[in-house]
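Researcher: I'd like a structural prediction for the single chain below. Treat it as a standalone chain; there are no partners to consider.
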Amino acid sequence: VEAWESSLWLDELHTLSHASQPTLRAVIDHVQAEFHTPLFFGFVHFFGGFEAGAWLRAIPILSSVLMLWPLVLIARECGLSDRASLSMAWLYACLPYQVLYGSELRPYAWSGGLSLLAFLFAFSERRSTFARLTLFFLAILLGLLTHRLMALGLCSIGIARFFSRKPNSVPLWGLIVSGGLAVAGFLPWLLGFAKQATVARFDYQDSVGGYHLSMRLVNELLALPSRIVTPYMRELGSGWAILEQVASGVFALVLCALFFQAWRGRRTRPAEPVLRGVWIFALAQFLITTIFAVWTWDRVPLQYYTPMAWTIALLIAACLDRVADARDAKLFTYALGMSSLLMGIALIGGKSREDMRGGIAAVRALADEARSASGLECVFTAVLAQPPQFEHTLPYRAYAPDLKALEPALVPRPGADDFKRPLIVLRRNLPLKHDAWSPITTGRRQVRERIVDRYLTAYWFGPAPGK
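Model: Treating it as a single chain, here is the predicted structure.
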């Protein structure tokens, strides 16, 4: 459904832009200009780019499905029952956060999967010590090549192993050496980025007279625990938003009751070392990621929590095994299962969080009006808030290559032969006073606008009086 129905959003268009480069070397160069690592984008490159579009979401979707295998292996290491393991798999499949980032055409499904594998190899007692350390090294290395956030995951796994281990787990010093070898090649960049972020942080604070805690950040931090379960509610549209809010409310109430029952039954069975490690890893990764995000960006992007999001379904399932009464445990299982299913359905059924396809439809509708009013063919462009190395016309490449859109700097200027033609603009969050608007607004007036969603607006500009 996500690959067929849901619109791509801007970051996914960036993935298509990377993947559409002519060669793998060009993909790597294009990705590095955005400060990302190339493994995922290079893989997508072999399956297509703009011509394949949203169907490339099959890559993260299938990758996230494959995560069920190591997730079940960790559940067994944690001592979960078959019923709890099945509940864990159900929650992993249905919870909106997992559905969203498990299908998004970005590296985050891979980040979560490789973090999961690294944790498994750090705690597993199967295979030889050398084999487990080699697999741990590969998981960390591939994770860093997918996204440098894996460096935070390495720290969190180390903290979890320091406080919890099984008798035949690989030694901690071995994990330190293996992880250190994997991260060694990335260390200069990581240290340079940390220095750059710190200098930028202090420079900004000096320019505004000290640190100011914004209400936006406060609201993001308060909402964060719930948003790594269900990221979007009100944006889904009236009916679907109501379903998401009701189902999420039921899920939260049942979860609170479950935690209380599990706390009461915590003495019936001591926690397995691996389960204790999962708790420590989840808390450490959550705190480290939040501190890193606030220090670097002064906000908390939800996608940064994908390396620990797999722990949520597992820890809820572990709580089900702590409920002493079998009848109560069954009721909790059914209630969580049905509410999570409705939450996932509401997310898929609701509006796309940034409807680029709807934006192009609005552009076409405005163009029809402008063509009827002026009798002239339209000129098309876009202005998008994004890194400067990307083209502003990416939405047209994805959903309207026939419109032959121009970059803002190339639209006809006053005095040009085509200046009389209506100019149709798709805007994403870029202030009207930004320099990119100058070629568009010079000598023109806004005739009409059409709001698509809270991110996107389509505009019709025509020559100003006297022009």
